[in-house]
Amino acid sequence: MNLFDVYPLYNITPVKAQDCTITDENGIDYLDLYGGHGVISIGHTQPHYVAKLKNQLDKIGFYSNAIQNPLQVELARKLGKLSGLDDYTLFLCSSGAEANENALKLASFHNNKSRVIAFDNSFHGRTSAAVAVTDNKKIVAPINAQQVVTFLPLNAIELVEAELKKGDVSSVIIEGIQGVGGLDQGTTEFFQGLEKICATYDVVLILDEVQSGYGRSGKFFAHQHHNIKADIICIAKGMGNGFPIGGILIAPKFKASYGLLGTTFGGNHLACAAAIAVLDVIESEKLMDNVNAIYAYFLEAMKQVPEVIQVKGRGLMLGVAFNFDVSGLRKKMITDKHIFTGNANNKNLLRILPPLTINKEDIDTFIIALKESLKEVN
């Protein structure tokens, strides 16, 4: 049997990794400025994380949600404390797409409406409703297109309100910072306007923090930069540092009932152990302080590269924009300079999503390699 060929692959085979460095089968080290789509939050093979998982595996790795699991309770308590959202409740699942699916479903149950407002260049996942609210027709199959979704531009609050006035909108879903779409984000005025009009028209405000959450923006959630509260917050990626886990944080106005939501693998013992370890390390190593320090250093360093026309995003969720297609530049950075970066729907953008542990020396290494690569490409 062969693999279903849906991924274009670089000829690189990683065999080990530590913090921000990945080593391939030939002993070549790569600086990881992409974290596997922003998944690696506390660094590869972080010692506390590894020990926590090994210890848990020796005890019990999995059982269903039909039994007591104190690790879920511990995770919810720690997450509420660190995020500042103690009054929310937590539903656990296994991925960001699943988190968004459950958020959209819970919203529809709540107000008995179905239409969703999403935004241009959004990405929310590849499953049924999640891909329907993703602005990429290439990955939306006919079965997904049955969902009723209206796409609007960011920062046009009057257009959103005009749709909400029609009375059939269940939810508005928005990324704290857009990821795949190209690191665009709503203004503070826009986010605060969304919070206000969603409350006015009984519409659920869903913040997709799958990529922008867990300290990556310099606050625990990116929308907290705008001093708002969402009705439902979707999490995954950095939550498990590579172990599959996701979830939704649910505001107090939503009432739970048996069977309303469910999952087989969500909240299993190993996943919870991984997620608890991540929160432990974010707090003990003050990683959000590091994010803010490195962000400031990165912005200053980018002034050394005149070809850069803009740095988009915030914290360690960044896009370095040029006035040309960067696919060749990105390939050269990987194959010649041994530095991983990411791409986006915006072909002129290098996406930077390193572990939150990255240091200034790593940024210096990137700057030198970027300057050299730009000369070689040009």
TrEMBL record:
Highest rank taxon of the organism: Bacteria
The keyword Transferase belongs to this UniProt entry's keyword annotation: yes
Entry cofactors: pyridoxal 5'-phosphate
SUPFAM superfamilies associated with the record: PLP-dependent transferases
Gene Ontology MF term list: identical protein binding; pyridoxal phosphate binding; transaminase activity
Coiled coil: none
Protein name in the entry: Aminotransferase class III-fold pyridoxal phosphate-dependent enzyme
